[in-house]
Amino acid sequence: MISFPDFEISKNDRLLITGNSGTGKTTLLHLLSGLLMMQKGEIIISGSNLSALSQQKLDKFRGRNIGLVFQQPKFISSINVLENIKVAQLFGFGKVNTQDATSLLNELGIGDKAQKSTNELSGGERQRLAIARALAAKPTLVLADEPTSSLDDDNAEMVYELLHQEAVKNGATLIVVSHDQRLKSKFENMVAL
Amino acid sequence: MNVFKLSFKNLFARPMRSVLTVTMLTMGVALASLLILVGNALDDSFKKNIRGIDMVVGAKGSPLQLILSAIYQIDSPTGNISLAEARKLAKNPQIKETIELSFGDSYKGRRIVGTSQKYVALYDGSMADGILWEKPFEAVVGAQVSQEFDLKTGDEFYSAHGVDGMGHDHEEHPFTVVGVLNTSGSVLDKLILTAPESIWEVHADADHDSSATPEITAMLVKFRSKMGIMTLPRVVNQQTSMQAALPAIEVNRLFELFGVAISTLQIVALVIMLLGAVSVFVSMVNALKDRAFEMALMRSMGASRSQIFGMILLEALMLGIIGTVLGLILSHIGIAFLNTYANEQFGINVSIWALDPLEWLLITATIVLCIFAALLPSITTIKMDVSKILSRYEN
User: Fold this and answer.
1) Where are the domains of chain B?
2) Tens digits of residue pLDDT in A125-161
3) Residue B98 near residue B58 (C-beta atoms within 8 A)
């Protein structure tokens, strides 16, 4: 049983949720994205109470509203870079827009890798692709789970800047869950678990 | 990009696994389809040639041999019978029509049959060229014989003793081709037809006593009513020196013999198909194990449980369809090769392009089998704990 404090975040704002290992950071993130059901309490995103939604509606809600960035950038290996973005569009809002997908890749500086297999990307490119995928369905909320923890200072800086910049550009609220001390100086709003 | 394309790419991202599954399905379907086609063709050909023949009368011996030699022209004759005795039987009021056959000679392995023009009518034969025979030593050749030896109207040839083409030639009497038959899909295609007197004269002159009474090899009989089957064969077998055989019964007996071989092959085909289904099952289970994280990822992107379920079923369905299509292509190519041989030996010809109704059933059964094999693995995706899978791969 893990309890979390109440917190609120306004639209287009940024929030850092910190805490040591075992404090349930990932659990909270999965609750926020509707991948896990909680026993008590409620989560309200853009006026929708997640605990009141059926499994099917929750899947749809997640696809339309939430973009997830995981600590390990992993992709569907049988399809190429561009197709990974298209799949996120497909599951996010049901249809594919190649032009949007391509411009997103260009925006993140990996437009030239569109036809490559995801296995051929370097670590930094994989991080970029993971961010691009999270933004593919134009979410209102981007949730990032330890996006910088395993990266060196330069790459951590790059990933944070991209997340920040893309969230602003796409009008998305950003919540980062991390124990990474380097991020503390970047956020005004913080919740400690 | 759509779910269909994604399934397709998933299949071909791991080609070796798919190849194994598809190969088994292909082999199973090919064998099953081949059995259907060959079985039907045998059935067809055997039925087509006994059409209109209720009974065959010939020399005593094996009834199956009599039927095979007199109707299908694929076995040696049982011997000869007296024409007088045969004609006496033909007067029986229960008999509607008879066709006398005299054979035993051949040209380059193709049998020469001395008979009446009714024999051509029996199989709805029609002329491609020339006319039917009128006099002895006028010959009409079947479509296949004409093609094989380039025999055309006006050509001459000498017959040889024996039906296997190994006997000595009868060099005194050349035959003249007066007509060529169209392909009828019956035994006519591989025969050379002539008047019975040609056969008698060749043998009377060559090595037989010229005073001997004329003999024939067999007589095809059509009854006035089906009641004839009850009494006539017994009458012939008990009261004459001839033998009567019923083609329907002998053909059934022959099919029982084939039947054992065909059922064995059917079981083999079924086992291969089931192995294919097991392979689909294993392939899907493995795919789920390998791709659990990818599926959890898709769920995190908003894919619903039914979309993931559908994707796995779709993959199995594609394996099934690919296996079925390749299997059918393989069996029909096999038939194309078999056709050449079967047509020469038995006058069997199977259409390569048409799909038999039983093959449609085979297609449906294979695809349903594949879907069932994938059902259990697909259902496990519905119960998958996305959060757990994602966090497990994270650390």
Assistant:
1) 3-46+259-394, 55-245
2) 898 899 999 999 889 999 999 888 888 888 888 889 8
3) no
Pull the structure tokens for residue B367. 């695809």
The DSSP bridge pattern shows strands B169-181 and B156-161 to be antiparallel
* ipTM metric: 0.90
CA-wise closest residue to B65 among B234, B216, B243, B232: B243
Q: Is B75 exposed, middle or buried (0-12, 13-18, 19+ CB in 10 A)?
A: middle
Test B298 with A76 for CB contact under 8 angstroms: yes
Residue of B nearest to A30 (CA): B387
Query: Which contacts of B81-85 are long-range, i.e. CB under 8 A and separated by 24 or more positions?
Result: B81/B57, B81/B215, B81/B216, B81/B217, B81/B218, B81/B219, B81/B241, B81/B242, B82/B213, B82/B215, B82/B241, B83/B213, B83/B214, B83/B215, B83/B216, B84/B213, B85/B240, B85/B241, B85/B242
Residue among A172, A167, A162 nearest A141 (CA)? A172
Helix residue ranges per DSSP H, B159-227: 196-206
Distance CA B147, CA B151 (A): 7
Q: Which residue of A has its CA nearest to B394?
A: A72
Residues in A closer than 8 angstroms to B14, CB to CB, are: 78
Q: How many CA atoms lie within 13 A of B47 on its CB side?
A: 6
Kindly list the residues from chain A whose CB atom is less than 8 angstroms away from the CB atom of residue B2.
Answer: 90, 96
Asked whether the beta carbons of residue B386 and residue A35 sit closer than 8 angstroms, the reply is yes
Return the CATH architecture of domain A14-38+49-192.
3-Layer(aba) Sandwich (3.40)
The residue type at A68 = L
Give the 3-state secondary structure of residue A103: helix
Q: Tell me the pLDDT band of B346, cut-offs 50, 70 and 90.
A: low
Residues B1, B305 contacting (CB under 8 angstroms): no
Mind listing the pLDDT tens digit for each residue in B104-155? 888 888 899 999 999 999 988 899 988 999 888 899 999 989 988 888 899 9
